[in-house]
Task: structure prediction
Amino acid sequence: MINLTINNTTVTVEENATIIQAAAKIGIKIPTLCHMAVDCISQESKSASCRICVVEVEGRRNLASSCSTPVSEGMVVKTNSIRAINARRTVLDLLLSDHPADCLTCEKNGKCQLQDLAADFGLHNLRYTGEQSKYELDLANKSIVRDLDKCVMCRRCETACNDIQTVGVLSGVGRGFNAVVAPASMKPLDQTECTFCGQCVVACPVGALTCQTAKYPVWRALNDSSKTVIVQTAPAVRVAIGEEFGMEPGSVATGKLVSGLRMLGFDKVFDTDFAADLTIMEETTEFIDRVKKNENLPILTSCCPGWVKFFEHQFPELIYMPSTAKSPQQMFGAIAKSYYAEKIGVEPKDIIVVSVMPCLAKKYEADREEFSNDGVPDVDIVISTRELADMFKEAGIVFDKLNDSDFDHPLGESTGAGVIFGSSGGVLEAALRTGADWLTGEDVKEIDFKAVRGLAGIKEATVNVAGLDIKAAITSGLGNARTLLEKIQKGEARYHIVEIMACPGGCLNGGGQPYSCHDSSILEKRMNAIYQEDSNKVIRKSHQNPDIIKLYDEYLEKPGSHKAHKLLHTKYTARKAFK
Amino acid sequence: MIDSLNKLIELANNLKHEPKTDITIFVSMGTCGLAAGATPILESLKNQVEIQNLQEVFTIVETGCMGLCHSEPCIEVVENNTGNTMVYGKLKPEHAEFIIARKAAKKIAGVQTVEKTWYYPDCEDRGDKLQARIVLKNSGRINPENINEYIINDGYKALGKVLTEMDPQGVIEEVTKSGIRGRGGGGFPSGKKWAFAAAQKSDEKYMICNADEGDPGAFMDRAVLEGDPHAVLEAMAIAGYAVGANNGVIYIRAEYPLAIKRLEIAIAQAEKMGLLGKNLFGTNFSFNITLKLGAGAFVCGEETALIHSIEGMRGEPTLKPPFPAVSGLWKKPTIVNNVETYANIPAIIRNGADWFTQIGTDKSPGTKVFALAGKVKDVGLVEVPMGTSLRDIIFGLGKGICDDKQFKAVQTGGPSGGCLTADKLDTPIDYDSLLALGSMMGSGGMIVMDEDDCMVNIAKFFLDFTLDESCGKCTPCRIGNKRLHEILTDICDGKGDENSLSKLRDLSEAIKDTAICGLGQTSPNPILSTLANFEQEYIDHIEKGKCKAGTCTNLISFEINDACVGCTLCARNCPVNCISGERKGMHFIDQEACIKCGQCYSACKFHAIDRN
Result:
């Protein structure tokens, strides 16, 4: 242990702790911008580049960045000396002098850490002014907007993209005043290996990386009387959207969510959980088939579009491994514009499917060519949890005061297995629940596979089902996925089934969720809420969903049927690395 | 193959006793010599030897730089029997005929000779010489592309000695005792640095040679690499042995093609003779050296940035600790030393630490190579004992200010340093005295300024450089230097205001206090030091709109006075044709069109043009 003095207060911390951590222990919050601790996966971004967190250390020639300077025995630190305060103000002044002052119209207005710092510092006049950086907006993809004029070079997105996700698209480009974070050669994101996972957006403290919004198209659709506008909401949305309205993290707001969507004017409010159950039907069938034939193992889940694009670029040689089952979002779209369209007697082109997703890659997914029929996309518009919250606010819907209501039928009926898709391990657990029943031919009672739950980056479990030891692995975060896949490739690890989600912790930590600032306690509460919702359900196995059973009876025949394949399965493209 | 120290000594003796021609001519063929026209000189010397049929008398050797930029192209003629030598400078190809015909190291009418202002401390007495050449000893005296010439001059003897007679600890002790400090600028004791890395337990360690020389006006490292590459290779192997590293990397900027070529040749020759590679001198110590070319970023001279660049990452500094000696290249203990530091090591080992400490000052033993540039008559490389005064360098070796104008200041330490004024000329310079004067040693650039230099503009010039070369990682360096530059530009343009100076000072101090690396922390130094020494010039710019030196074009105007005789010289020299007037009549300058280049002012022979 190390003893040091901060602002005349003695503090004892572990070796290797930094000054900022020691200060936090005694209730001092040293302001910072570039520092980002992603504690749920023990990753830290400490480029120490912003220099906001500088403090005075006795005996040191210059100021120390507290985020990255390790403590030492007997160290005497002053966080609030006039020298430190003046330096910090100057650094903030400089940052603001090269930042567009368009806070009122900025996507991050109210959620911007630079704005917060300016407010906290009470910086009302800029002493230093001059030329500002000017770059072209990158609007070329469906998911992420890059406005580099606002980049503060904190490099947090780089940590997300390179260290956490190992995608490696973002890095420092240019020198001096012209330095900025961007893909190599300043290419737009759609010409890179970007997976659109949106973790860079989560990491960005300012408005340099934001979501490509689709709110207005939704408003327009809702006001188009010639269209039937239906909405699906993903499992992770219901446990997070309340945060946007001051509700406790982890509040389950399913009922309010349904009421709110109805108030916005959707003709039908459906649930992606229904499609998640459908996914389990198809994927588990495929899984059991592969296990029985002992071929193409392990089967990899394919619900996550960020992960799908990742393996298409990074592991094209493993293209046979992922399940061919479409993601729940796309299954929902496909069923809505076939089975449901027929059922209500409306032409598919006159139905607009809106998705509310915790994810930015879902916007990209819905736009993939193979998910359209004759120019009619299965899913028309995708908005994120944050965008939906904005729409509620714009509509004056006081979300936290809403009464609960239920989803519409038939595409709103779901099971506990569907809802756990929102957390890392959920897809696999849902598959195991159904797989166990199908393999044993019984209604297995022990269905809480707790070994596969939790926010850990890589989890392994061996589950005995019908006398068969099923070796499973669950990973979230693409860097973890890479580690696991490399092991599988080298033959160092063997599994029957692997669940992979691009975002650390799964969809509940998606790029479209309310900003959690990587606070793992918030993520944990969201996760607990998801399992709470699961345990509250009467039916907790996908194959027992009565509307799913009806769907197969009336339309798809059986899982894996020709028709099911046509509507619910897809194929992947080996994508070259962009050079 | 040289597999023992005896074999090396034997080879050296054999080479020494090979018969020599009466006269050897060394042709200075460093980059600067080549640029000044050394190639045609070499050709015509060779031609003349043939024409005059004197092949038996002359040997012509292509060498590296002699440091005599002011007299390039130049050659040194050595009479091998008498030891007499003569340096000829500013040569033209037609001089070759007379030089060859003279067959001696003697003056020749019509050919300029150059005084040799240096001695070699390991084999000569000082006498009245101002320069002491340890680092530059071989540069200009051997063919750098022939390893034998290095070996004749005691080359690789130091390596043989440490491998066969000393243990690693002993080597570190000797280097520590010599007191040599890092010649790259920081002045950190090299022995201490090595000891730091030697103490680390690791399966792999690395020695890096920092050859990313980038200070404006500094080129001593290039001269060493072009003129005496083996000295660096030998030193790296010695250091590798001392700290327990078997691999060395020379990080060299790609803009030094000749140095790269000569290093490649040197490495190949050393490997072929067994002086690099496996089991050196029959011991179980192995050492390999590879080159890594830098893409020309000044910040990559900063050791952590340099290491990232070698690793294929963006050349950006990271915070220390961890220091490279603990976790450097590929996270292994790594020593980064500069070219000039390495070039001292073989001499220290051969002659002993006690010999080395006799040269220079107590706290900064040895010599320092300076690149003397700017408004000084004899520009070039000078290697002087530490503690030599600025006056000796500028007025002794540099022969004073061009056109006998007034000395104004000298900038040491390049863009990280500061300017020293006339009252500091007698300070004995070493690391500590320069720091005490608010400047620094840096890599040894020395830029002399005279009365025609505007100090605000000089500060802006250096900031131009740091602005271009900042990696942009940290806020103070990325945006702060930009703002400093904007304020300076305003002052030079006559747009400064009453807040300009306080802003410059406050921002400079904040940048020094908060930037991540040495580049940013020192970038405001030229501003702070010119402000400290020449504040009135800043005030004149701001309050009076005057640039006394006449370099800030927005603050000056040229007007023709009554002394004009109508000679038309000004009009003929004006590049934009803005001067009108009849022959023998008074001329006028169109102020709107004038670009204030000063051509007319320089051309007028009648003091008829005023610069206001």
Observations:
- DSSP finds 18 helices and 21 strands in chain A.
- The mean pLDDT of chain A is 95.
